[in-house]
Amino acid sequence: MLNGVPGRWITCRRGLRQGDHLSPFLFIIVADVLQCLIRQATHNSELRHPVDDSLPCPVLQYADDTLILTKGDVHSMQVLKKILDNFSLATGLDINFHKSTFVPLNVDTHTAAAMADVLGCFLSSFPQTYLGLPLSPHKLRVSDYQPLLTSFDRYLAGWKARLLSSGGRLVLVNAVLGSLPIYYMSSILLPKTVRDMLDAKRRAFFWTGEEKCSGASCLVSWDRVCLSRGAGGLGVKNLEDANHCLLMKFVHKLHSPATLPWQCWFHSHSGPGLLATSDSYLAKLVLAVLPLYRTLTKVTLGDGASVSFWHDRWLLDSTLVDRFPALHSHSTDDMVTIRAVITDGLLPYLRPRLTRTAAAEHDVLASHLSQVTLTASHDVRLLATMNMQPFTSRGAYHLLHDSLIPSDVVRIWSTRLPAKVKFFAWLLYHGRLNTRAHLFHRNIKTHDESKCEYCVDTLETDVHIFVECPRAQAVWSRLRFVVHESTLRRPWNVTLPSLLPGAVKDDVMILIFWHIWKARNAKIFDHRDSSPTEVLRHISADIDAWSCRYRKLAVELHAWHEWIVTC
Q1: Rounded to an integer, what is the distance from CA 554 to the centroid of its chain?
Q2: For the whole model, what pTM was predicted?
Q3: Listed residue (297, 116, 117, 254) closest to 125, CA to CA
Q4: Residue 93: which of 180, 168, 29 has the closest Cα?
């Protein structure tokens, strides 16, 4: 059409290719036509909203996935079929009704069959897959999460786990297996059974490379593995905490000014303090993560309209319910907002005849409230960190897991050694190396089978392997280092000659322990005896091979290399 005058039809020869910048705009233009047709039918009372007659029928569109909700009767299906046919004729987009599904809800069987015949769609039931997630008005079963479990199995089947070192498996667990369930966890609170099944697959792959493993194969508890590296763990994602932190974004958006339709809908159906009176799916999510969200955030007061007086952290760096428990026990409105208290005073929201303790707490709190001033701006919630960062799911997870007093085990991860050597040092730090004594304590080996290969009458503990065994002492003597039991798990505490630089001390000391351990394994599994000279030669060879990791510390590394070669 040119200047309002219809012209000849334009022949489309090639169309828009995938990735063309015009494609999203074209989709919006075409999708808006369907929205307008359904909105017009609602205005003419031909279609009705399934719950509220005053609202238009919801239409959710994403790429080629379209979800239309309407009243469940035959007449509505006839109108909808007519709208879809007109939309197809107007846009040239053919709708494949055989690939579409019709899902009735609270509709009798006879009427549902008649509605499906009108549309020409297959009659289906919940749960339905929409945007890759199971959609259902009912509680999802464990079997509904099978696509997620299958995705784990598909990746695990393609990996040659037995050919990977423990460090390599750790990288895959963190980078791949820890990321696969993120899309699900961003919208769904995974049941404990599903989380346990996913953890079982991750744990078995990490410790054994198999599909399943028993507790005897796990050298360290999974809870410790899931701690942050600064707290002494391996930084593997804790799925339960990650799930809660990802869902907190909904709670955080609900505390922001309501500009989106779903925010307005939720606020209209929720009670005070975001505690919804309905049993909707979103209300259950909010109820599950709201307490943890309030624990991890602080409030910068604005108008005080969205801040819980008792349960949010806005005063004295803690919640008032924790700081003034006796006074809170007299509260008549647990969800009262700060604006209401500042406007009306605190006494109207307390029961009369306060106890002596509650009266004393009231006087203290009243003195603090007298200094509170509200503004016309909105309340702002930030993560309760030292620098008060804006809320993100990632930041909330780190706040939940990062230790306030970091362990010195973090020095292992600051080295530039390969991952397998760092993992060995981590096990040594926790005293969880698979020594014969460790196997004996777990009833895997007998006492007679748990002796040192060189010292017949001595139990093979990690202290004996690295400190007491004559083979280890020979290595330390050649290096002129003195290693005690107290410095075994922290090699960086070993006293060294003043000639050696300290910049790469942690790296080289861990490497020496690593090769003493390899010499022990060669004796047990390959029946090959390694002399101290061979051990030192292997250490210097690895320093040469890994020198590319230390380009900025080449001088310091060379000094260590010369020391080891000349010993």
Answers
A1: 38
A2: 0.86
A3: 116
A4: 29
